[in-house]
Structure formats: C-alpha cells, structure tokens
Amino acid sequence: MRTDRIITDTPTRGHTIQETRRPESNNITLHTPTSFGLLPSIRDMTVALSAGQSTDTSSADSLQGNCRPITTTPVFHAVPTTTHGSSSSSLVPGNSVVSPDNMRTNQSIASTSGNSLQETRHSAIQSTRATSSMEGNCRPISSITALKGGNFEVVSDRQKRERRSQIKRATDQFLHTLVDQIGLKPHSMKLETSRGNILDWNFQSSSRKRPSNPDRPQEVTKSLLYILLKFGISQECYHELTQEFPCLPRTYKVKEAISALETPEVFKVSGSFPGAYFKFKDILLKRLEEVITEYPSMKRARVRISGDGAKYSRSSNFNIMSFNILTGHNDLSCKAVHTIAAVKLKEDYDGLAEGYADCFETINEAIANPHVTINGINYNLEFFLCCDYKFTLLILGLQAAHSNHACAWCTIHRLQRYNMKVPDEKYLIHMKRTFSSSGPGYVRPNIDPDHVILDELHLLLRITYRLIENLISGAKASDRCTEALSGPMMKRLIDTIKSCGVTFYVKSVTKDNIEFTSLTGTDRKKLLQFLPSKMHQCQPALYYKEVKVLWEKFSKLYTAVSSTHPPAAAMISTMAKDWINNHFLTLGKHCDGYAKDRVTPYMHALSYHVGHFIQKYGNIKQFSCQAVEKNNDTCKHIYFRHSNRWNAASDIIKHSYKLDSLRFYEREKHSYSKNDDEYWEEGGIQEDRLKRQRLDDE
Q: Which of 117-126, 222-231, 244-253, 325-334 comes out lowest in average pLDDT?
C-alpha cells in the first residue's frame, strides 16, 4: 500500500510530528510521541478531510518513501504539492522555504520510483511558488494559545469539557486555515489520549437540519412579540413551537426583535430601598404623541397619576406608580395605564418619602410646565391624583384614616362625620384643605386637593365591607352561642351569600375583628344586585326589612355615582345624606355596627365631596382605579414570569414599557352580544354553576 509520509522534527521543543496519508482515504493521522503544546497528553490525532473541489488524478503517482527531518521552528503552513498532476498537502515549516538549494543541501527529500530527481526538483519549485503566494493568508499554529494544566486523564470532568471545547475551537481555526486554500474542509477529528481513550467530534453542524421553508416569515411581527410578552411565553416554549410549526419565525430572530425594542433610560431611586423609575416627562410626551395620533381632535389632556402597593410574595411588597392620559375612550383599560416607577417598600409615610423622592421631583417638573408643543400644536395638561384612600393620605402627608382629622379635602373631626345637617359650604369653603396644610417638608406631587379625586372603586369596596361586617355581627348576635361560626343564622348567611354566585367564607369572628373572604368589585356588585331580596333568610326578623332597604338604597346611590352620565351633583349629595341619616344610623338601635362612630371617611366624602367633583369634572368614573388595580396584577405577573428577582424593579418597568409600546398590535377581539338577559343578568348563570357537581360533593 502506498503512503505519503513526511516527518518534521523540531529539536528546539523536542517534538516530532509524523503525518501519514493514504491515497485511497482522506484521513490524515498526526502521531505525537510526546505532549504537544496545543494538545497535552494527546498521542495520536486523526483528521478527516473532504475535498472541496475536484482534482486531476489521471497520472496519480504519489510520493512514497521516507523524508529526512527538516530542522526549523514549530510554525507550520499549508503547502499544496503537485506531483504528476495529483494534488496533496503537507506540513512544512513556516520559517523554511523548500527550494532546489536546500534540497541539494539535504541531498534528497524524497525517493521516488520511476521519476528522476530533476522532475522532483521541478515539483518542489512549483510548491515553493504556491507557498509564497499563500503565506500571507495562512494562520500560524503558534498564534493559537496553548492549553495549560496537568494531564488530560487526571483533571476533573469540568476541566475535561473545557479543554475539549478549547481544542475543538483551536483545531477548527487551524485546520480551516491549513486546508481551505487547497479546497479541503475538515469533517471530523479523533484524538487518542495517553491511556488509549478516544475523543471524537464533527466540525460540521448537526445533521438534524430542518429543511429550508420558503414560506417561513423572515421578519418577526409586532403582534407576535406582544403575545409573547403579554402571556409570558418562555423562549424554550417558543423554540419547541417552531420545531412543530415551521411557519413561525426562527427563535433567534424573536430574541433579536425583543432585544431591539427600545426602552428609556432607567434610574435607580435614591435611599436604601431597591427601586427604579423613568423620567416622567419623557414617558408622558411619548405616550401623548401616540394618543394625539389616535385622537387628533384632542386639544387638552387630563393626566391621572396613581399609586398602589401590593404584596407580591411573603417577603416582597412593591409599590407601583403609574399615569393615564384620559381621552374618554378605554380609560378603564389597563392598556391605558403606563408604569413609571416600581419600588420595593412597605406602604408607609417614611417609605414613600424616601423611595419616591426622585420620582416625585420629575413629576413636579412636568406639573410646573403644563404646556407642551407636539407637531407644532400647543396642548394644555391638567394633572390629577387618584389612589385608594390610604395611599392618598400618605401622598398628602396626612395621618391615617382612623385619626381625628382624616378627610383629605376638609378638616372635619371624626366624631362629627355622622352629622348630615351641616351645609356644604362649611366643608367646601371654610374648612377646605389647601396644599400648604399637608405635612411639612414632604416631597410629593404638587397637585391641589381640588385635583385629588376620590376613587369610586374603593368607595364601593370600603362601604360594602362595612355593610357585610354588620351582617356578620347581626348573625352572631342572633345565634347567642359560644361558637360564632357554627350558629344556624351564621350558616344561613354564608349559604345565602354563596347563592348570589359569590365564593364566601367567614374565617373568624372576635370582639374586635371579623375576618371573611376578600371580595372583588364584581362580587360586591353581585351582592348589591341579588342579596337584598334574600335578606329575610340571613338576618333577624326584627330588622331585616330595614337592612334590605339599606342595601337597596346604597345600590341605587352607587349606580348614580359610578355612571359616566350621573345626575345632578345636588341630587347625589341629597341621596347620600338621606342614606346615612335615615337608613344607616337608624339601624343603630338594633345593632352596634350602625352607630354614629361607624360612619367612615368614605361615607362623609360621598355626602359632601363627590357631588363637588361631579359638578366640576362631569363624572368620577373616568378617574376610577380599576385599571390601576389590573396594572398592578400585570406587574405582579412580570415579577414572577419575566424577572430573575435580582433587579426586579427595573425588570417590571422596562417590561411594562415594552408592552405599552406594542399595545396597538393586540388582536382586535370579536364583539359578543348577550341575547338572553335573564340568563346573564338575573342569576341564570349562577344557578347553572350551582348545579355542577364537584368532586368534593360526591
């Protein structure tokens, strides 16, 4: 069998590399008797080469025999050698040039059968010319960093994996430089360690290539990005979908598209609390341009600023600051709410004062300059503050809701809140709060109390909480037993509330506190609609009629207040005062829950301040925090699905900004009309749900 063998010795390093090529195979085996700088403790290396172009082998008569050692430094280049029309490659020193002179000096480089020495010298001259032309394009092996450390067989598994990767990268670079010039491509490589173990891998990409799909979209649509970000679809999940559905864009393009979404500069809040915020003016102008593009006839913009805190986990409480540009269209949608700050803190006075000082300064800069110019048109901005009552008092620097002067709009004493005979002018003019009457030295939005609006959603939640609490107290007093939760009246009350289509349980009843299931706004509206007609089942016969009228009156009152086209302000104030004075307080002789000191700040504001807001701004429904609560749920979803918890505040506001930027690409949902009003509105759906058999009932 014919073989081409070239032996190169490097006495300066003490290494000998022997290359053996078999003409009928494209494999090259490099025998390294001792350790080589690049491949420590690797004895033999076999490299498989595939031809990149056809060669003429009509007169294939390869070199055979042994070549004597050539002394040089360990720098190697790829040299194509042509002999009798056949191409082959050999490793020759980069610092020595094969020429007739040095061939003559070394007497004979190769011994050939049937060929003269003159022909061999002619082949060497051609090789030298090819070497000179390629010398600038070849990468020397000495430029590849040698591996360090002990023997390959004795190092740890992690180090073995690292060395395999380094060897593969270095060898891949070197072999491509070595053989690309002569039309060969590395295909695979095998290494044999000093203990005889074989390491092998392929240089080519995986054979599991998907067939090219000409119908595959080349660009990632904004709608797809919105779906991925909104529903928290992970990259691993999307990659599996692309394997099953080739019509989807490739995963790497989706990653690039998400990374390309621009976000404003994020600033860290000062102080000890972890948090992040955007500059309010920058985000406001960006969103205002989008709103003006959608509603070009708008000349004045109302900006509602809101804040809300929530418990995200056992040890994490985040407070979210957001704003909304009121347009009269979809103001109650969470897509219209834009997050500007997120701070991990407990919702108290000191926390807000320290954690939101920088954010409030940026808000005050925008409030101080309410005139903006967009596309050559001037717009006037009017700023409002609308939060739940606790957050409102904290922002204004006032005391808590159980303090003596807890009203955010006047200085009424808590023991006088029950008095509905006081004229409106006393609270709206003479006892009106001003901006300077808030807490001194407190950095907060510079918004006048006239622009601090009562939230109608929390008005419903807090007043109905007091009403449900009184129902439970009445049932407990009627049972007159030590076990308050096991009495017959209490059981009937729980069953009656459940029959309204609401999940409800009473957790504990003590002298000072009553705990029951926290109901949403929708659940409480159901109670206002269905519970009054069933009040005889769950309240003592002595006064259940008065309780029924109380609930019915409040249902009508709340419907008027929460309407986008409410009745006159004077009518609402009259209805609220009549409800408190003639229905709520009159039940005090039957149950302690309806006493004078049980009139809450929300009840006082409903009687004296809500009508003023309706008269001045048209309605208070547009300022509802319904969308703010939903946005808080979205931020909580981001916290658990899109954040690694290391920089959660920054992740929340950046991801929210991306969702805001893509909100116009959401799929337009089909309209749905409810034809059977009796089924949907009069309790038919609740009855069907009660008929469903649960596993626990079997």
A: 117-126
Cα 669 to Cα 335, 522, 666, 672, distances in angstroms: 14, 22, 9, 9
Return the beta strands (E) in 317-395 as ranges: 317-326, 337-344, 371-374, 377-385
300-311 and 377-385 strand pairing? parallel
CA distance linking residue 63 with residue 111, whole number of Å: 8
Which amino acid is residue 394, in one-letter code?
L
Q: Which two tokens stand for residue 287?
A: 């969103």
The percentage of the chain sitting over the pLDDT mark of 70, rounded to a whole number, equals: 72
C-alpha distances out from residue 506 to 104, 172, 470, 516, 541, Å: 106, 71, 13, 4, 22
- Give the separation between CA 526 and CA 545, rounded to whole angstroms: 19
Residue 81 C-alpha from the chain's centroid: 60
- Going by pLDDT thresholds of 50, 70 and 90, the confidence category of residue 126 is low
- Is the C-alpha dihedral spanning 36, 42, 46, 50 positive or negative? negative
What span, in angstroms and rounded, lies between the C-alpha atoms of 254 and 260? 10
Distance (Å, rounded) from C-alpha 188 to C-alpha 50?
9
* pLDDT digit string, tens, across residues 643-652: 888 889 999 9
- Residue 75's alpha-carbon distances to 28, 48, 53, 94, 672, in angstroms, are 19, 22, 27, 5, 77
Greatest alpha-carbon span in the chain:
130
> How far apart are alpha carbons 299 and 336 in whole angstroms?
18
CA–CA distance, 643 with 659 (Å, rounded to integer)? 15
| pLDDT at residue number 31 | 45
The two three-digit tokens of residue 683, written as one number:
């309790």
**To which residue do tokens 């240089």 refer?**
203
User: Phi then psi for 271, rounded to 5 degrees?
Assistant: 100, -170
Residue 240 pLDDT grade (very low, low, confident, very high; cuts 50, 70, 90): very high
Look up residue 292 and give its two tokens.
Answer: 């003006």
Query: What pLDDT is stored for residue 22 in this prediction?
Result: 46
